[in-house]
Amino acid sequence: MTVRAGVVVTGTEVLAGRxxxxxxxxxxQRLLEMxxxxxxxxxxxxxxxxxxxxxxxxxxxxxxxxxxxxxxGPTADDLTVPTVAALYGRELALDAELEDRIHAIVQRWxxxxxxAADSEPLRAGIRKQAMVPQGAQSISPTGTAxxxxxxxDESRSLPAVLILPxxxxxxxxxxxxxxxxAPVAEVLARRTQMRQDTIxxxxxxxxxxxxxxRTAEREITGFDDLEITTCLSLGELEMVTRYAESARPAYMxxxxxxxxxxxxxxxxxxxxxxxxxxxxRLSGHRIATAExxxxxxxxxxxxxxxxxxxxxxxxxxxxxxxxKTGLLDVPAEVIDQHGAVSEPxxxxxxxxxxxxxxxxxxVSTSGVAGPGGGTEAKPVGTVCFxxxxxxxxxxxxxxxxxxxxxxxxxxxxxxxxxxxxDALETR
Amino acid sequence: MTVRAGVVVTGTEVLAGRxxxxxxxxxxQRLLEMxxxxxxxxxxxxxxxxxxxxxxxxxxxxxxxxxxxxxxGPTADDLTVPTVAALYGRELALDAELEDRIHAIVQRWxxxxxxAADSEPLRAGIRKQAMVPQGAQSISPTGTAxxxxxxxDESRSLPAVLILPxxxxxxxxxxxxxxxxAPVAEVLARRTQMRQDTIxxxxxxxxxxxxxxRTAEREITGFDDLEITTCLSLGELEMVTRYAESARPAYMxxxxxxxxxxxxxxxxxxxxxxxxxxxxRLSGHRIATAExxxxxxxxxxxxxxxxxxxxxxxxxxxxxxxxKTGLLDVPAEVIDQHGAVSEPxxxxxxxxxxxxxxxxxxVSTSGVAGPGGGTEAKPVGTVCFxxxxxxxxxxxxxxxxxxxxxxxxxxxxxxxxxxxxDALETR
Lengths: 427, 427
Known about the structure:
CATH class of the largest domain in chain A: Alpha Beta
Family (chains A, B): Belongs to the CinA family.
Largest sheet of chain A: 6 strands, mixed
CATH architecture of the largest domain in chain A: 3-Layer(aba) Sandwich
Shape of chain A: globular
Domain MoaB/Mog (chains A, B): 6-186
Helix content of chain A: 40-55%
Distance between the termini of chain A: 49 Å
Radius of gyration of chain A: 27 Å
Organism (chains A, B): Rhodococcus cerastii
Number of domains of chain A: 3
Protein name (chains A, B): CinA-like protein
CATH superfamily of the largest domain in chain A: MoaB/Mog-like domain
InterPro entries (chains A, B): CinA, CinA-like_C, CinA_C, Competence-induced_CinA, MoaB/Mog-like_dom_sf, MoaB/Mog_dom
Number of strands of chain A: 17
Oligomer: homodimer
Number of helices of chain A: 16
Strand order of the largest sheet of chain A: 2-1-3-8-7-6
């Protein structure tokens, strides 16, 4: 059976576009992974009437579960629990044991901050956070805000609702206990288990993949039982397929067909990202980067990962030509002759990093990120790359990348990751 | 008069949490800036029934304008225009002139890609994109998808709707023409002009600002006419105030009060970000970074800005100790004696960058980003910084930053930007 959910994200700063919501996407992904269909996500500010309207809307859309995020703080504008409780016709009651627990958490924080004694506003805030709707189950807080799970109410045509706090770390830490709470577990028990698999391609166009899917539709038995979405992001094409266990053979046929037609353009069929693949292949290596137009973004991305100090030695951002010469030993005459954005300079940058940082693999970038600096011969978006590997000839590439400065820099960073993955594969 | 709007973001990949929506926040910000109140943002997949339900919901909430994004492509799953047109009871009609224009745009792209001749699916896709609801106004495409503005329909209790494409660059380029279209202009003409001003603080707590706002509420005449939201992000506290022109004196009083109480912790009252301030103050300088735990993030952030090549010379990411010694001349004995995460090492890193890259200001970071590597004396989150300036003693700081690896790295990057701003101010 299909179980449908809706997500309500609260927060004036999210509604106003000043803060990027991380909870809606995270909750949606978790629900989809476990076979729950996400029908709607709604965002509202701190106005109780708007929140009530959104919950009522999702109920009218016959979702089986509503998850709300945010609005559980100690201050007066945090209104999710009383607003939802009123809609469900449930009185709030103080949970004294919960109040003590929140108080203990707050005391621990305050002792670290060496603040003054309890104030009345502070105690009132804690009491507010410890109010639980009658018949609801509270979810243990990891910050100061407990969550609440309220069972469905058929007489009011209201589905089960799970109320979680706004800070992503708190929400994510509370998720397992939330799923186990009776009101949520009861809904989840009704669902058909779904699998979800992801295929990722690089330099593979949406049109080409669409053509392959048309072939699949003709040739693969059970293709219609696969729910496929595709998405192009930073030059990577992601194809996510959801299916019931019974459709597994059809999915395996599809995976084979995509691999057969697109070959090496498919770089992942097991969910791994290009960052996972590069990190895995870098095991036992020493890497450095030499960056101009990417300005340190490749180094930042490599070191984003815990444990990257095992293989990242360092990087040189040689933004000015004098830095290319001074730190990477690129002769000024080569820059004069070919220009900074050229394959010879990119090659010497990578080789300079290889030597100076004593690594066995180095990647370099030199390009015109824009908006200025473009010429007829080298328009904005022209980026030269090189990969230098100990004991091998240095390989260079030139790409013409679309979009604005941010786009060119981001696409260059992703391109460098793919070049690294390729170079590390064929050693 | 208050004009209210709702935004509908379409896209299965957004609903599924795989792609971060950039359109909802962008549209919300633009609307708020011009004094339109954004009441709801909703996200739906590619199912017409869900889209119809969301538009109907926003209409029931009495918004004056609905903006939809996405679902205007040439393929069958792009259904926004026919779905909304059906709800508004308007037939679709082919706009032959528009069809020709889209055809010309597609031909230009295809000639660059050196593809084959027109195919029937291609022509069908173009024809689909050139279908305009009767009585609606089309908005010129900047990609291949034109937008559509449909006037309000009182007999159906439906507000004006503006339909725009999903690619953010296309949507943003079409925005000015969309605002001028008769159905949208008619709604905007009814609004009260609102001002919006932003005050930004650093190392200023939400609790302290809340206390200041309570004082303001008591002391400032007209305080209730100010609509204030506060938001803490990466250690920066942002206070955004919306108000009608008549409440300008109250806002000026508030700005003075906040400045009087919080002094230098308020770094911006004119909308400028710390990146704007640093870029402005770097004019005429030469800067380099020497980064360990931030792994190139400060350099990437500085070079994110067009024109940064005027002052960014380069950076050294000295992730391994040997890179600190080899590229930044930090003596191995100092690292042995104090540890890599120490103020003496941070100072020598910044000074090494100053000398090696021949700049007049350099910032360095060395810290424990986690999850591993923490000790009793230097737990995860301990980050040492230094600012070296030609002719001045090098200044060091140690911060203890909360959160996971990504949080420590991001907070460190922002902290470095503020240290740069301070150092550049007092020259």
